[in-house]
Amino acid sequence: METLSIGVLASGRGSNFQSIIDSIDSGYLKANIVLLITDNPNAYAIERARKHGIETLILIPKHYASRNEYYKNIVHELKIREVGLVVLAGFMRVVGKPLVDAFRYRIMNIHPALLPSFPGLHGQGQAADYGVKISGCTVHFVDEGVDTGPIIIQAAVPAFFEDTEDVLSARILTMEHRIFPEAIRLFAENRLEVFGRKVKIHGHSPVDSSLISPQIPR
Ligand code: GRF
Asked: Which atom of ligand 1 is nearest to the CA of 169?
């Protein structure tokens, strides 16, 4: 099987980006990250890419004539590098139609809540304020909506009365770092199939945890 080429879009700290880099380095994930695109010149993700020799493009939306032009340019950069999967690792924008159309079911996002609850910004704070007892994270394919695409994997964590947004975020983040590489690995192994809203996972899951998508055969 040909090695999957990944393009990452990130706006900030890039800890999920790092978890993907680490999964490749450890041999858990057989893929190459060929490009980081960021919309934020101060993103710490840039430093992570530099340390690992990953090419980086800083593309600033206001330098383009329109939102469409911005995303058309991103598509161009991804296509000339033959990217097979686009990974949104804390990319703090709603992805434009040119990108969604060009990479249908080949764009993944991680959201820090159990979708469809608490989409959009501050999913962890929304969940903490709502008083849920269980929260978690979701890896999903990206469609035209905000955090609405077909769900690939979810993982749950407890939420406690005393939790602030920061405390709950940290608990969720440890699970993000597990399920994002897992979802990418399933994609790289060609084991994901989309049926409308639903994603079928073929074969057995590489991760052993009762909290992660318990419907996956193990
Ligand atoms: C994560 O909480 C992710 O779920 C959300 O944005 C945050 C990015 O964190 N989409 P990082 O940049 O990967 O550390």
From this structure: 2
